[in-house]
Design goal:
six-stranded antiparallel β-sheet, 308 residues
Length: 308
Amino acid sequence: MNVSNPELLQIHYYLEENSHSMNALILNKAEDEILKIFDEISTTLGVQIVTETQALEEGGIKAIYKFLVKNKSREKAVVIGVFLANIAGTVISDVVSENIKTDAEFEQLKKEKITLEIEKLKNELAETNENYIYDENSQLIKDVSIYISEKNKVKISKSNFYKNIKKESKIQKVSTQRLNYQYQPISSEKIVSRQDFEDFIIDEASIEDDYQEQTTIEIVSPVLTENKSKWKAIYNDKDISFTLKDKNFKKMIASKNLSFSNGTKIICDFETRQKMNSEGDIIIGARSVYSVSAIIYSDGTKVDIIPK
């Protein structure tokens, strides 16, 4: 391989016989999702890239993407470009991910696992030889592709990509394939037939609310009167506000004239509403406090709250 040239990835939309055109709006939407996947791959691997699109070719319709890696030597940039093209092609056409349906604790564990694995794989990428990087069947390529494919943003972008091209009745199949600088194939063609598009489409994205039992929250500004104002607090080193929904604790505040000085904390059940937007980002919603079991003052004094 000539390492003085950028890596190319071709996405081939196979159309019904004798057709060389398709709905431009559908193609534009599909390409937008592809670019989102490229961006997530580069962000996950910590590699700055510029993706250029070559002119579309007939023979069906072929979109050719050029990977230009920033801030690296020419030879190293091309090696990483090969790696990225391998990953992108595999993510788009090989890995079928499960539906997005998880709870907050599992979501956090998954993120931590992916982070650790990606850091390990980055080091392997930096140390390994070129022949290993060029091998599309290497375990490294497979592992990174699976980890990236499990990211919610990638799942949604890939799902949207296949939803869009499914709307174009002319498309019979789609494939990814690496090309050299002379536009000649240098990898096997990964093909997804129309009847398999549905395997990549996710119809349900369900994120459970984050519910932490008997966790500690530092109170900044309590609400000591009966109104709809929200309490202000610090949780996990972040400023938050919440609604107090423990009726017993509210009564105790009034009947026992409980005080809240600087540094006062409470032990409680803490709920954070969550939802996922169309980009795969988890959006934090309203927070609520239930089942307050104790107050801890700044001098260490603890007052247990007895439930009724």
